[in-house]
Design goal:
It holds the Pfam family Aminotran_3. The protein has two domains: 113 residues, Alpha-Beta Complex (Aspartate Aminotransferase, domain 1); 235 residues, Aspartate Aminotransferase, domain 2. By secondary structure, it is an alpha/beta fold. The longest helix is centred in the C-terminal third of the chain and has 22 residues. Strand 1 and strand 2 form a beta hairpin. A seven-stranded mixed β-sheet has the order 4-12-11-10-7-5-6, with helices on both faces. A four-stranded mixed β-sheet has the order 1-2-3-15. Helix 2 runs antiparallel to helix 9, helix 3 runs parallel beside helix 9 and helix 10 runs parallel beside helix 12. The two termini are 34 Å apart.
């Protein structure tokens, strides 16, 4: 008997230790983690993050937001870098998206937000309402009104939904949960121009794509745009729960005293881990290496799988990769784990790869060999 709600389908394996990019279970078996804890441990189990957390926990691990917290200022500065944004800290991607929705509505005085089919923004009511997937909302009654859903990469479908009440357009630049669908550059440029023409805020959900995952600190930097609002979480503190919303400084007055808050947001431990993570990732050479590793992984995957008739497509950006297939996903995940490789799924027919950004060429070779074997065996 379990004392837990059964809202997760758990595999009968428990990881109890980690070394670098490997997970170790209760029986001492080692697994190469090509999931990064669902895009969370972007640096693997990094010694610098661990060291900084140990130092912080020995001093103090929480203070309320009624007092100064210089760690929050340090992390905010590392997050915004050369951009003119202000930051609100919370605890998850869903909370960051809730904050973005509230900020957009309060700033514009409008309510309608255009999102996209097959998007995913979280499971709280506002974030769930922004999500363009019916299965996420099933059984929970009425969602928050004033959300509509355009077709991804189709600018005309966006134009058809704009009204005088449109406050914002909200999207992921790579739709992760529904199958690694990458936004086209022409579409994003048109979308940004459309927002400027109609005085609509552009919200980019970088919960999964951010913090170096695509070879840039944020994925929007590949598209030569500057969103009004950006949300971040997952990899931001390399495994310690945290979320952040970045909004242009011109919006900052809207979140005045008492308008929004979070008891645990910007917690000392979360900020310590986030600071260590960003200090590592913001290095230009580190991000260049991520791009090189991405090219290497894509090249080796295409070479290993190009003649497999069960592979439909290999796509993605950086180290966020989807392998579309007509094979049974659960069987592929189980076989990979039996071969010592942890992988994910996305949508109905995509294997999702989110390896740590610290992955080595040797580990890339190891993973590609396993993937080739399990696709050939199936």
């Amino acid at each position: 008997m379990s004392y837990l709600f059964q809202n997760y389908k758990r595999t009968n394996v428990e990881f109890v230790r980690a070394e670098g990019n490997e997970l170790i279970d209760t029986n001492g078996n080692k697994y190469l983690d090509f999931s990064s804890g669902i895009g969370v441990t972007n640096l693997g189990f990094h010694p610098y993050v661990k060291e900084q957390l140990q130092i912080q926990v020995a001093s103090i691990w929480h203070t309320p937001n009624l007092y100064l917290n210089t760690l929050q200022e340090d992390v905010a500065q590392l997050l915004v870098r050369q951009y003119d944004y202000c930051v609100f800290f919370c605890n998850s991607g869903a909370e960051a998206n809730e904050a973005a929705i509230k900020l957009a509505r309060r700033y514009t005085g409008k309510q309608s937000i255009i999102c996209f089919d097959q998007s995913f923004h979280g499971r709280t009511y506002g974030a769930m309402s922004a999500t363009g997937q019916g299965k996420i909302k099933a059984g929970f009654g009425d969602v928050v009104p004033h959300f509509s859903y355009a077709k991804f990469n189709d600018i005309n479908s966006v134009k058809s939904l704009i009204t005088k009440d449109t406050a914002a357009i909200m999207l992921e630049l790579i739709q992760g949960e529904s199958g690694i669908h990458v936004a086209k550059s022409t579409f994003i440029k048109q979308l940004s121009q459309l927002c400027n023409e109609h005085d609509i805020l552009l919200i980019v959900d970088e919960v999964q794509t951010g913090i170096g995952r695509t070879g840039k600190c944020f994925a929007f930097e590949h598209y030569d745009i500057e969103p009004d609002i950006i949300t971040s979480a997952k990899g931001l503190a390399n495994g310690v729960p945290v979320g952040a919303m970045l909004g242009k400084r011109s919006l900052s007055y809207v979140f005045d005293y008492g308008s929004h808050g979070s008891t645990f947001g910007g917690n000392k431990l979360a900020m310590t881990a986030a600071k260590a993570t960003l200090e590592t990732i913001n290095d230009a050479q580190f991000l260049n290496d991520v791009s090189k590793k991405s090219e290497e992984l894509f090249t080796k995957l295409n070479k290993a799988l190009f003649d497999n008739p069960r592979i439909i497509d290999i796509r993605g950006k950086g180290l966020m990769i989807g392998i579309e297939t007509d094979l049974d996903l659960s069987q592929l995940v189980n076989k990979a784990r039996q071969h010592g490789l942890i992988i994910l799924t996305a949508g109905q027919n995509v294997i999702r790869l989110l390896p740590p950004l610290t992955i080595s060429s040797q580990e890339i070779n190891q993973a590609v060999c396993v993937l080739k074997d399990i696709f050939n065996e199936s």
